[in-house]
Amino acid sequence: MAAGAYRLVHYLRLASVFVVLLWIFIQFGGAGDTRNQYASLFRKFRDQRTVFVSDFLNHDVNGPYNGEGLSDLCSAKKWTPGLLLTCDAVPGSMTDVKNGILTCVRVAIEIGAEIILPEIKLRSTMDLADITPHDNGPRRGVPLEHFFDRAYLLNTMGQFCPELKIHESLNDFYDEPNVLTPVPLDLYKVPGVEIASNLPGSAGKLVVAGDKLGKQILDLINAKSPPSTRQYPFRVALRPTPSYIMPSFADPPPLRRYFGRLLRVRPDLRALAAGMLFNLQKAFGLTIDPRQGIDVDAFVGVELRTQPDPLPFPAYAIQASDALSYILANNMSQVFLTEGATAEDAAAFSARCKEFGVNVVTKEDLLEGPDVLTLSELSYDERFLVDYEVVLHAGLFTGNAQSSFAWNVGLRREFAFGEPGAANSSHLNGTLRWHSPYSTLYGKDNIGDDFRRAIWP
C-alpha cells in the first residue's frame, strides 16, 4: 500500500514537471506559424478571461471617442489666458457627480477660461440619503480619479480641446495671492439667465438657453471686474456646482453623444466589471464579445432602488412588478441585478423571479478570489460605477425614471445601439416613462425630465 502511494506521488511529480516544460515551450518555444498555432490553441483554455478583460478595456460600447463636436465647440470660443474657473466639489450619485464635473468643464469652455477640475463630495457612509455630510463652507472632497480616469480625460481634452488649459490644483498659483479671493459665481443668479421652471418635470433647474450662458457669465464678471483694470490670473469660483442645469439635449448630436464620454470609469473598476461580465456569460452559457455590439437575448440589467435615497422612489412592490413584467414580456431568463436594493428586497426579487424560471445574479455571485475583497472595500457609489460598465453590455435594461443612473444607462445605450421606440409600447406592462429598443424606464409622466434633458451619458 505504501509502495503504491509512493509510485503515485512519483508519477504526479513527473507529470508536474511535464506540464511546466510544456508551458515554457508554449510561451517561449516554437517559431512563426508553429508558435502561433500553439498560442491560438491554448488561448481559449488558458487566457479566456485575460483576453476578455483586455478586449473590454480597449473597446467602448459605441466605439472610439469621436471628438468632432468637442473640437468644433472649443475652436469657436474666445479664450482669455489667466481667467481661471474653479468649481465646488460635486455631491451625489455617480451620474450626479459625472454631470456636475462635465458642467464645470462646459462652463469653462463657454467663458473661455482655464480650469481646475472639481473634486467629488462623498456621501455619508452612515446614511446613504445624506449626500452632503458636514456641508459647511466651500465643498471639499476627494480627487476626480476616485471615480474616473483622469489620464483619459486629460489626453482626450488635449487632443480635441487643446485650447482649454487644465491646472492640477491651486498649488499651481502658490505665488499669486489674488487667486485666494475669487469672484463667486452662482449660475442660478446670473443676470439674464432664464430657468425652465415652466417646463413639465423640470423642477426649475434647467437653463432655457445654454448657448447664451457664456456671454451672460462674462457680462457678470466684467461688471464686477472691468477687463481694462483686471489683474491676471483672475479666479472665478462656481459655488455650488450644479449637476443638471445645462440643456444637453439641445447640443448638436456629435457633441451630445460624446461629451459625457470624457469621463470614463477608472481602470481598476472597469477591469472588475469585465471579470464579472466574463463570469456572467460563463454562468449563463452566453456569448458576449466586448469588441462587438450587444446580443439582445444575452441578459437583462435591472435596477431596483429601495436603499435610502434623497429622491422618493416607488415602493419595492411597484418596482419589482414593473421589472418582472419587462423580463417576462421580452422572454428573458437571465438577470443581472445592480446596486440599489436592500439585501431583503434583492433576495425577494430573486426568489420571485425563480418562480418564473428566471435566474438573478448580483456582483457577489460573479466574483472570486481577490476580487471579492476588492468589492467589499468599494463604496456604494463606486459599486454603481462597476454596475454601469456591466449593464452597458446587457441585452436589455430596465429601471425607474426617478434614477439618474437609469437615465444615464438608457441614454448611453440609445446613442450606442439605437434610437428610441414608441413611449407607449403595448407589449409592456406598467407606466412607461421612456422606452428604446434596448432600455425601458418606468415612471409617471415627466418624472426625471431634468435627467433626460440635461445628462451627457
Please trace the helix and strand order, writing H or E for each element.
HHHHEEHEEHEEHEHHEHEHEHHEHEEH
Q: In the residues, how many domains can be counted?
A: 2
| Cα gyration radius (Å) | 25 Å
Shape: globular
Q: Would you tell me the overall average pLDDT?
A: 88
List low-pLDDT spans: 19-46
What is the share of helical residues? 40-55%
Q: In angstroms, what separates the terminal alpha carbons?
A: 68 Å
Structural class: alpha/beta
Strand content: 5-15%
> What is the strand arrangement across the widest sheet?
10-9-8-11-13-12
Helix run count: 15
Q: What is the total tally of β strands?
A: 13
CATH architecture of the largest domain: 3-Layer(aba) Sandwich
What is the third-level CATH name, the topology of the largest domain? Rossmann fold
Largest sheet: 6 strands, mixed
* Top-tier CATH class of the largest domain: Alpha Beta
Keywords: Membrane, Transmembrane, Transmembrane helix
Transmembrane segments: 12-30
Organism: Sporothrix epigloea
Protein name: Alternative oxidase
